[in-house]
Amino acid sequence: GDSVTQMEGPVTLSEEAFLTINCTYTATGYPSLFWYVQYPGEGLQLLLKATKADDKGSNKGFEATYRKETTSFHLEKGSVQVSDSAVYFCALSIDNQGGKLIFGQGTELSVKP
Amino acid sequence: DTAVSQTPKYLVTQMGNDKSIKCEQNLGHDTMYWYKQDSKKFLKIMFSYNNKELIINETVPNRFSPKSPDKAHLNLHINSLELGDSAVYFCASSQVPGLTYGYTFGSGTRLTVV
Questions:
Q1: 3-state SS string over chain B?
Q2: What is the mean pLDDT of chain B?
Q3: Is any Cβ of chain B less than 8 angstroms from the Cβ of A103?
Q4: pLDDT per residue over A43-57, tens digit each?
Q5: Cα–Cα distance between B61 and A67 in angstroms, integer?
Q6: Interface contact flag, B48 A32, Cβ < 8 Å
Q7: Are A22 and A72 in contact (CB under 8 A)?
Q8: Which of chain B's residues have a Cβ under 8 Å away from the Cβ of A34?
Q9: What is the pLDDT of residues A25-40, one digit of tens each?
Q10: Which residue has the higher pLDDT, B75 or B60?
């Protein structure tokens, strides 16, 4: 079945460090890919998305490129801030499945000053 | 204005009780969803409705019954609550096609069954 696998957390970084959170997927159809962020005690917010191969999604300094050949959608940021501390979810959605999102297990990021 | 609002934010109840969680969206979206987030933060879809019609029901126990009185509302009623129902429940909505525009989530309802 369709699934998303993320790197295990927690990830702890110092402020201004480079961030990579790995995400790979398995899909029977052609998925759209998403990164969502969940700040403590809050709901999920869409961070970025990509709907076709080689698309790059970007927002707030975060980037991810849809790589069909490696079935990956890794999240990167060049310089993290304390305010980026949150749980990050990679997700996919496939056109003929009623719009449901399939999530990875989430990766907790903690950024220290 | 809150785009997707859920009530209540917190719900503590005893085993065996029946409870409801309400969700409303003011985005004009056609599709609404319920997701469950367990204690390890894993998120899984439970239901989705498109224009008041049920389109996804993901092997959820019969004790869970969604109701959509109109396309702006999707409520979740849970009968005979069990300890394992303790989780955070998120409502979400999307425009059709959700793939292009993404999904908007509510802030969640933390249900604790004691």
A1: CCCEEEECCEEEECCCCCEEEEEEECCCCCEEEEEEECCCCCEEEEEEEECCEEEEECCCCCCEEEEEEECCEEEEEECCCCHHHCEEEEEEEECCCHHHHCEEECCCEEEEEC
A2: 90
A3: yes
A4: 899 999 999 999 999
A5: 37
A6: no
A7: yes
A8: 102
A9: 999 888 999 999 999 8
A10: B75
Q: Say whether residue A15 is in contact with chain B using an 8 A CB cutoff.
A: no
What local confidence, expressed as pLDDT, does residue B18 receive? 97
Q: Going by C-beta distance under 8 Å and a sequence separation of 6 or more, which residues neighbour residue A49?
A: A32, A33, A34, A35, A57, B102
Q: Are strands A107-112 and A11-14 parallel, antiparallel or unpaired?
A: parallel
**Which chain B residues have any C-beta within 8 angstroms of a chain A C-beta?**
4, 31, 33, 35, 40-45, 48, 50, 55-56, 58, 90, 92, 94, 96-100, 102-108
- Cα(B76)–Cα(B21) distance, integer angstroms: 5
| Whether A44 contacts chain B with CB within 8 A | yes
Give the distance from residue A32's alpha carbon to the nearest chain B alpha carbon, in angstroms: 6
Closest-CA distance, A18 to chain B, in angstroms, reads 24
Q: Are strands A56-59 and A62-65 parallel, antiparallel or unpaired?
A: antiparallel
A chain contacts of residue B4, beta-carbon cutoff 8 Å: 43
Is A43 touching B (CB cutoff 8 A)? yes
Test B48 with A43 for CB contact under 8 angstroms: no
Higher-confidence residue of B96 and B53: namely: B53
- Quick one: how many helices (H) and strands (E) in chain A? 0, 12
Is B103 in contact with A45 (Cβ distance < 8 A)?
no
Given the structure tokens 């069909």, which residue do they identify? A68
